C-alpha cells in the first residue's frame, strides 16, 4: 500500500454540499471507492481531487481523469465518467457486460435504488487511475 497524498481543491466540497442528501451519500461512496482504490495501488502516491466541468474529478500522474456526478435532470441515477477517447468504458463493457449500465463510451451509470457492484467497480477505478500503464494490456489487465 502506498502513502497516498490527496490534494483537494476546496471547491469540491461546495459541490458535494449542493447535492440533495440522497445523492450526496451516493457520490460520497464513489469518492470513497476512488480513494480506497488509489490507496491500494503502490504506484500511486498522489491523487488530485479537483473540478472538471463543475464535477468532482480525480487525477493521477499515470491515469485518466475520473469524474463523478448526479444531475437533477436524471434524479434516479448517478454516474462515474471516464475519458470517452480512452478504451476504459469499451473494455468495461466486454469484461462486465451485465454488471453495469453504460452511457456510450464515457460512463458507468448507477441507479439510486440499487446496490453498487463495488468489487468490480473498484477494478474499473484502478484501471482508470493507472490507465497509462495498463492501456496496452489485454483487457487493461482486468
Structure description:
- This protein is an alpha+beta fold.
- It has a single domain (5-131), classed as Alpha-Beta Complex (Aspartate Aminotransferase, domain 1), CATH 3.90.1150.
- 36% of the residues lie in helices and 25% in strands.
- The chain is built from 5 helices and 7 strands; from the N terminus they run E-H-H-E-E-E-E-H-E-E-H-H.
- The chain has helices at residues 11-18, 21-39, 88-95, 118-129, 131-134, and strands at residues 5-8, 46-52, 55-59, 66-70, 77-82, 101-103, 107-111.
- A 7-stranded mixed sheet has the order 1-2-3-4-5-7-6.
- Helix 2 packs across helix 4 (118-129).
- The longest helix is centred in the first third of the chain and has 19 residues, at 21-39.
- The chain is globular.
- The protein starts with a strand and ends in an 8-residue tail after the last helix.
- 31% of the residues are buried.
- The model has no long low-confidence stretch (mean pLDDT 96).
Amino acid at each position: 500500500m502506498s502513502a497516498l497524498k490527496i490534494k483537494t481543491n476546496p471547491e469540491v466540497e461546495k459541490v458535494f454540499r449542493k447535492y440533495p442528501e440522497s445523492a450526496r451519500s451516493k457520490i460520497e461512496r464513489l469518492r470513497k471507492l476512488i480513494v480506497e482504490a488509489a490507496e491500494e495501488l503502490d504506484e500511486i502516491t498522489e491523487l488530485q481531487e479537483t473540478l472538471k466541468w463543475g464535477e468532482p474529478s480525480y487525477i493521477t500522474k499515470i491515469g485518466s481523469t475520473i469524474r463523478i456526478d448526479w444531475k437533477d435532470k436524471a434524479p434516479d441515477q448517478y454516474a462515474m465518467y471516464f475519458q470517452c477517447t480512452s478504451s476504459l468504458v469499451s473494455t468495461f463493457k466486454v469484461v462486465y457486460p451485465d454488471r453495469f449500465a453504460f452511457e456510450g463510451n464515457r460512463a458507468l451509470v448507477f441507479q439510486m435504488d440499487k446496490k453498487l457492484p463495488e468489487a468490480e467497480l473498484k477494478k474499473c477505478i484502478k484501471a482508470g487511475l493507472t490507465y497509462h500503464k495498463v492501456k496496452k494490456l489485454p483487457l487493461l489487465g482486468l
